[in-house]
Amino acid sequence: MLLLKILWHVVAFFAYRFFKPDYARQFFTQWVENSRPKFKAKQKFSVIGSGFLYHDSGAFGEVYISPCRRFVLKKSYGCACDKAYGAYLKFVMANQGNPYVPKVYAFLQEGDKQVVLMERLHKLGESQSYWSNTLSNLVRSQNTETDDADLNIVLEGICQLIKDGHKNDIYGGNIMRRKCPDSPTGYQVVITDPVS
Ligand SMILES: Nc1ncnc2c1ncn2[C@@H]1O[C@H](COP(=O)(O)OP(=O)(O)OP(=O)(O)O)[C@@H](O)[C@H]1O
Ligand SMILES: [Mg+2]
Q1: Pocket test residue of 55, 57, 63, 72 for ligand 1, highest count of atoms within 8 A of CB
Q2: Long-range contacts of 60-65 (CB under 8 A, 24+ apart)
Q3: Residue 102 CA: which ligand is closest?
Q4: Which fold has domain 2-122?
Q5: Which residues have their alpha-adjacent CB atom under 5 A from ion ligand 2?
Q6: Helix intervals (H) in the chain
Q7: Which ligand 1 atom lies nearest to the CA of residue 63?
Q8: Which atom belonging to ligand 1 lies closest to the Cα atom of 102?
Q9: 1 CA to middle of ligand 1, Å?
């Protein structure tokens, strides 16, 4: 059984790795969507057999990474902080054209439990403290008038969530980056989960 499982992961890893990004995205989106009725009934979501592997976890839940390494699946534990994440995700999904928010491809929510399929992002590295200080100072002072219109929209969204009673949770771990060859730095900053 274990051997079969390992074999499946090896096959899935190579198969998905060579999928075109769009095809892989459609495939995984469909897989999450197909689980919607079962999730609605039982609030359970199984990654077994999908080829997704455990990546990391935090206060919110567990993060799994797709075999092609392009997507992650975030599965919440169903604790109180998920209300804040759910509220931020609503904002994120309404602002998918904004480069500062993660690209979300599928979202299941039942009660306080969520399953989110999103783009895989990367840690900020040495610019992490610069960005966490800058963004938390802007949010704390409710300054939503920087030179960057897209950033202002996200700052306004976060300030609104804080006014709604959620806590500011901007710190280095909740700010990540996506590769962006057109940008002078080579990356785009992405705010993954700024409230708790
Ligand atoms: N889109 C993503 N792509 C790649 N890794 C991610 C993504 N989102 C989160 N992670 C990683 O998964 C881990 C868990 O993330 P999560 O947001 O659940 O918890 P946390 O940031 O450690 O804690 P918290 O947000 O509750 O303060 C983190 O180490 C984070 O780097
Ligand atoms: Mg986080």
Answers
A1: 63
A2: 60/85, 60/193, 61/114, 65/120
A3: 1
A4: Phosphorylase Kinase; domain 1 (3.30.200)
A5: 58, 174, 193
A6: 2-17, 21-34, 36-42, 81-94, 128-140, 149-163
A7: 12
A8: 1
A9: 31
Task: Kindly report the protein residue whose alpha carbon is nearest to atom 5 of ligand 1.
Answer: 121
| Among the bound ligands, the one closest to the CA of 81 | 1
pTM value is 0.89
What is the domain partition of the chain in residue ranges? 2-122, 124-191
pLDDT (tens place) for every residue of the chain, 196 residues total: 777 777 766 766 666 666 677 888 998 999 999 999 999 887 788 888 888 999 999 887 899 999 889 999 999 988 765 789 989 999 999 999 999 999 999 999 888 789 999 999 999 999 999 999 999 999 999 999 999 999 999 999 999 999 999 999 999 999 999 999 999 999 999 999 999 9
> What is the distance between the alpha carbons of residues 120 and 134, in angstroms, rounded to a whole number?
23
CA 154 / ligand 1 centre spacing (Å): 19
